[in-house]
Amino acid sequence: MSSVVVVGTQWGDEGKGKVVDYLAEQADLVVRYSGGSNAGHTVVANNKTYKLHLLPSGILYPNKLCIVGNGVVIDPEKVLEEIANMKAQHVDTSNLRISTRAHVILPYHKILDELQENDLGDKKIGTTKKGIGPCYADKATRTGIRICDLMDKEVFLEKLTTNLAYKNRLFKNMYNAPELDLDTVYQQYLVFAEQLRPYVADTGSLLQENISVGKKTLFEGAQASFLDLDHGTYPYVTSSNPIAGGVCTGAGVAPKQVGTAVGVVKAYSTRVGEGPFVTELLDETGHHIRERGHEYGTTTGRPRRCGWLDACVVRYAAQLNGLDYLAITRLDILDELATLKICVGYKLNGELIKHIPASLKELAACEPIYEEFAGWQQDITNVRAYKDLPENAKRYLERLSEITQTPLGIVSVGPSREQTMIMCELFK
Ligand code: GDP
Ligand code: IMO
Ligand code: MG
Fold it and tell me: What single DSSP character describes residue 324?
């Protein structure tokens, strides 16, 4: 058995797509296990940039089985759009399989996402408005519609009728918003159903069959540890479990079938959407990082909030995910800075604390304790071996590795496949 899980250690957009695409070459299967089209994974390959939201980042290789697991929420229109885009770029999508057990995003989920956000006013979460929260809420209250339901006209009509009647009552009586027409939604989704049918499979069984004959599996995390519904900065989180533990429920494998864990760490911190951010930089340095790093969301285009690398966050993610290796990305974005900082501890009410507080009030009151590092102030985008990185860059990375007690496995100095240094053997 040989499997690797790639997870985000911060607040998303760490470069998971790049790392998964890079590692996919060595894998037989690439599996998404959580989230939905709120994810935006960018892969640069063959001189082209691909923006993936629901399709696993292994899709660019012709012979990899790409699975969208039961833990993912599927917007049929979006996934079909992505498939069409891939086909237009001559990417073969015939190896894509979507779980019969995955839940379906319906138009009312997206409308509710927007209405709930508007209702929250200045307390809004800052969601991607893709209907993620409302769809997972229906899953949890056991009223959701799954892909297997969508595949059966009668079952789908029955469930849609019940659900829509309820959502329309909400729209009309609570939000004073227009109601949706049952037949319009039904007919639209029947068309989607037929287009999706060739890709639909019992992905849990498929995965088990492949694992049992020794196939190498790569699990692709979306979102990140601090956006995890249970372990992130609740309520400013997503509605699923992106951490390594989520692989079991979201793909249908046992804990002992999840092998090596790789945590992707952006060389600094960013966050899109609301919520506490202890190392946020609201000054010229934050602005410099955002502009030099083009830190604008892949999914929504929103400017990302930028800050210093927070080793407390990465250390917690290392414990939570049982990280075997760190994969550092976007180190090159720091090339021009004269001084860098890493947050190595939090002070709360004048006391050094060792944990990340659950209470947002306490987290917001935490002050970062920084260590300073001299920058390298040279272009590192052409470095291809770890030993050739400037000493100051190595010092910065090795201190992070020391604080998090996790070895460096990958260092990335640019978006393309060639700009990757690998110092570990992942698939054993
Ligand atoms: P994901 O959501 O974790 O997959 O990350 P995103 O794709 O949303 O954002 C990461 C961005 O950084 C993408 O535009 C990648 O192409 C880019 N990227 C990844 N690694 C590197 C790197 O080492 N250097 C630079 N400059 N860009 C990178
Ligand atoms: P990738 O996979 C960054 C954030 C949203 C918002 C919160 C809840 O590209 O790293 P949601 O729409 O999920 O209900 O929004 O989570 N968020 C992300 N931020 N990268 C992502 O995915 C994200 N997916 C969700 O901005 O703060
Ligand atoms: Mg992203």
Answer: S
| Ligand closest to CA 41 | 1
Residue to substitute in 18, 299, 336 for testing ligand 1 pocket (most ligand atoms within 8 angstroms of CB): 18
- pTM of the complete model: 0.98
Question: Mind telling me the catalytic residues?
Answer: 13, 41
Question: Within 6 Å (CB) of ligand 2, which residues are found?
Answer: 8, 11-13, 38-41, 125-128, 130, 132-133, 222-224, 227, 236, 238-239, 272-273
Domains present along the chain, CATH in parentheses: 3-99+200-260 (3.40.440.10), 103-196 (1.10.300.10), 264-422 (3.90.170.10)
Q: Is the predicted pLDDT of residue 203 greater than 60, yes or no?
A: yes
Percent of the chain with pLDDT over 70: 100
Protein residues near ligand 3, an ion, with CB under 5 A: 13, 40, 298
Q: Between β-strands 260-266 and 65-68, what pairing exists: parallel, antiparallel or unpaired?
A: unpaired
Work out which ligand 1 atom sits closest to the CA atom of 414: 24
In 121-248, alpha helices (H):
132-140, 147-150, 153-169, 182-196, 203-212, 246-247
Contacts for 82-86: CB closer than 8 Å, 24+ residues apart:
82/52, 82/53, 82/54, 82/55, 83/55, 83/199, 86/50, 86/55, 86/59
Note the pLDDT tens digit of each residue in 13-71.
999 999 999 999 999 999 999 999 999 999 999 899 999 999 999 999 999 999 999 99
d(CA 133, CA 37): 12
Kindly report each contact of residues 414-420 with a partner whose C-beta sits within 8 Å and lies 24 or more positions away, as own/partner. 414/332, 414/381, 415/18, 415/42, 415/44, 415/49, 416/44, 416/45, 417/21, 417/22, 417/44, 417/45, 418/384, 419/332, 419/381, 420/18, 420/22
Strand spans (E) along 39-168: 41-45, 48-52, 65-68, 73-74, 96-99, 103-104
Q: Whose CA is nearest to atom 10 of ligand 2?
A: 12
222-281 pLDDT, tens digit per residue, is 999 999 999 999 999 999 999 999 999 999 999 999 999 999 999 999 999 899 999 999
Q: Is the pLDDT of residue 361 over 80?
A: yes
Angle at 261 between CA 255 and CA 265, to 5 degrees: 140
